[in-house]
Amino acid sequence: MTSTQVVTETAGPGPARRSRWRTWPLLAAPVAWLVFVVLHRVLSGRVWWWQAPELAPPFAFVLFPVLLLAVALPARAARGWIAAVTLASLVLGGGASGLNLASLWHSPPPAPPGAITVFSWNTLYWDMRAGGETMPPPTGTPSRDIDDFYRYLHDQKADVYLLQEYIYFGRDSKAIRVDDTARLRREFPGYHIAAASELVTVSRFPIVLERGIDLRPWLSEERDRAIPPDPGLPGFSAVKTLRTDVRVGGDTVSLYNTHINSPVHAFPQGPDPRRLNRTQHERRQANLRALAADVERNPHPTLLAGDFNASPAMGILRLLPDRLVDATPVLESLYPTSWDDQWPLWRIDWAFTTPDITVHRYGLVRSNGLSDHSGQHLVISTKG
User: Fold this and answer.
1) What is the predicted pLDDT for the residue at 299?
2) Which residue, among 232, 105, 226, 127, has the nearest Cα to 174 in the 3D structure?
3) Model confidence at 193, in pLDDT bands (50, 70, 90)?
4) Is the pLDDT of residue 11 over 90?
């Protein structure tokens, strides 16, 4: 009689354990990104030490989740969890991406007779690179012809021009006053001119009020340290918005020409951590709070436009008053960009209106090397 010995082999834990070790990194990346997105929504614009993450390209808030989903497809065991976590980060962070989904369906009404054409543009140190100032221009700024500069302005055929960086800037970081009033009057006969700090507004309509909005009352007790003196241009650091009220027929329309401080200080140059500091953050907050306070008290139809130095990923724009309406849906671009003009990656130039103003057309106009910013071209009317 032959005895048969049955041997039962039990599979060891090795393959399953190795599978789990391969899955965990695929799940960890979406979870880490979701944590980042949550922190960004909570901290962006509120604390100064989150300024470095705020510099992330806005499109990363859509691109990164899509890439995570693509990489996670082979992980069958955790595919559902990875998809859920990634989609959650996409929903929470999609608003910071700069995507203009409203462009797919929004159809603004046609402009009525008498609509107002407004052009807002950061000029990049006015005519400094065309020989308008004897000091050398900042490193890296291309040269240009001043006639091309004014030709570009005329091409916009605007009733009102809201222009920023009406200023020269020395390599010693000192602001230098510009007075190009005579040339402006020759180029735009019959127009009215208002200027404050580094801002100039040129209007075909009569100006009934002009006022620079001072940020200093909205700074902390250390505001004297945060706002250094500017002997070459008093008020340069304190006034970053020019309010100009113009008379259009029987209406008074308020136009706010603004240039909010950059989150990255221009000096010292290079990869210096001091370029991201608490002072810069507090100036930006104070500027927007001062602006919001003035808009809230203003009973007139209002347009606010300019260089906000804030990408769609920066939460500091939440300091604007709730009654302002973002004009972005009127743009035809799915991903509008305004900076850098030659290699545009994202948008830092914005336009907002009160509900009693209708935006009929809105476009970002490339400056063809005249500036590092695209211009903003709007056609608006008051509902009154």
Assistant:
1) 97
2) 232
3) very high
4) no
User: Beta 251-259 vs 302-307: how paired, if at all?
Assistant: parallel
The one-letter amino acid at 341: D
> Whose CA is closest to 46, among 305, 278, 341?
278
Task: Give me the amino acid identity at 170.
Answer: G
Residue 157: Cβ within 10 Å count: 9
Which two structure tokens, joined as six digits, stand for 91? 């929903």
Q: Is-contact 44 50, C-beta < 8 A?
A: yes
DSSP classification of residue 142? P
pTM: 0.89
Give yes or no for a cis peptide into 15 (omega within 30° of 0).
Answer: no
Beta strands in the chain (DSSP E): 116-122, 160-164, 167-169, 175-177, 192-196, 199-203, 207-214, 239-248, 251-259, 302-307, 325-326, 349-353, 357-365, 375-382
Per-residue confidence at 131, pLDDT binned at 50, 70, 90?
low
Q: Is 118 helix (H, G, I), strand (E, B) or coil?
A: strand
Amino acid type, 249: G
- The residue-averaged pLDDT of 321-325 equals 94
Range in 130-134, 236-240, 279-283, 312-316 with the lowest mean pLDDT: 130-134
3-state secondary structure 217-270: HHCCCCHHHHCCCCCCCCCCCCEEEEEEEEEECCEEEEEEEEECCCCCCCCCCC
Cβ distance 45 to 315 under 8 Å?
A: yes
Name the phi and psi angles at 248, rounded to 5. -120, 105
What type of residue sits at position 100?
A: N
